[in-house]
Write a structure and sequence with these properties.
Layout (H helix, E strand, L loop, with lengths): L2 E2 L2 H21 L5 E7 L3 H17 L2 E7 L5 H13 L5 E4 L9 H7 L11 H9 L7 H12 L8 E5 L6 H10 L3 E5 L6 H6 L3 E4 L17 E4 L3 E2 L5 E2 L4 H4 L5 E2 L6 H19 L2
Parallel strand pairs: 1-11, 2-3, 2-4, 5-6, 5-7, 7-8, 8-11
Antiparallel strand pairs: 9-10
Helix pairs in contact: 1-10, 2-10, 6-7, 6-10
Guanine (GUN) binds next to strand 4 and helix 6.
Amino acid sequence: MAQIIDGKAISLQIKDELKEKVASYKEQGIEITLAVVKVGNDPASAVYVRNKEKACEYIGINSKKIEMPEETTEEELLKLIDELNNDKAINGILVQLPLPKHIDENNILLAIDPIKDVDGFHPVNVGKMVIGEPSFLPCTPAGIIEMIKRSDIDIEGKECVVIGRSNIVGKPMSILMLRENATVTITHSRTKDLKAVCKRADIVVAAIGKAKFVTDEYIKEGATVIDVGMDRDENGKLCGDVDFDNVQLVAGAITPVPGGVGPMTVTMLLVNCLRSVELSK
Ligand code: GUN
C-alpha cells in the first residue's frame, strides 16, 4: 500500500511556520495585506476565495476582498488593478480566475505589477522562474515540490512525467521539476501512447481535469503519484484525475483528493505573500 501524502497536515505545518514569521514582521512594524479580486458569480471561485481569506486570517495577514459584478468591463478591472498597484498598503494582488468571458485574462494578468504578483502568473515572473532568478513561483506547482520534499521523496535524477500543459500547472510544474534536476516529460492530449510514457515515470503529476483518468495501468510499481484534479465522479462526489483506490495498490506514495494538492496551493499563496516583503526590499 502506498504512503498517503497528507497535504492538509503538511500545509498546516507550513502555515504554523509562516505564522511565526508574520509575528516577527509585526514586531518590526511590517503589516502584510493581500488584495483578492473576484469578478462575477462562479461558485467554485467563491469557495477558493473564502479559503484564501481564511488562510490569511490564520497566519495573521490582512486580506482585502474586492467583489465586482459579472458585467464589470475590462477597463473597470484594469482601473482597479492600477489603483492596487499604486496602493503602498497592498503587498500582493490576486485576481481569481476564471474571469467572465468578455474580459481578456492575459490583459489583466499583464497589468498586475510583477512585484505584487503573488500568483506568479505575470510573464516577467514566468520568465524569471524559467531562468532561475528570484521571483514568485506559481502556487500549485510550488506546493507540489514542497509536499514531495517534505515527504522525503527525492526529485533529483528522477523520471518525472507531467500530464497536462496548462499555463497554471503543467508548464510551470515541468520547469520546477527541471530546476530540481529531474528528467522531465510533458504529456498532453496529442501524446502517443500516454500509458507507456507514464509507466516509465518515478513521479507522475496528473493535471488533466478528467475524473479517475489515471489507472494502475499508467503507474510503475513504487512511483509517486500527485493528483492535481478537482473533478466529480459518476455520483457527483469530489475526486481527482487519478483512480485513487486502484492506483494506491501499486504506487509508492500518492496524494488524495480532497486533502492533497488543494490545501498546498492556498498555503503557497501565503508563502508568496511573505515573499512579497522580501522581494520588495
Ligand atoms: N483559479 C484556479 N486556480 C487559481 C489560482 O491558482 N490562482 C488564481 N488567481 N485563480 C485560480
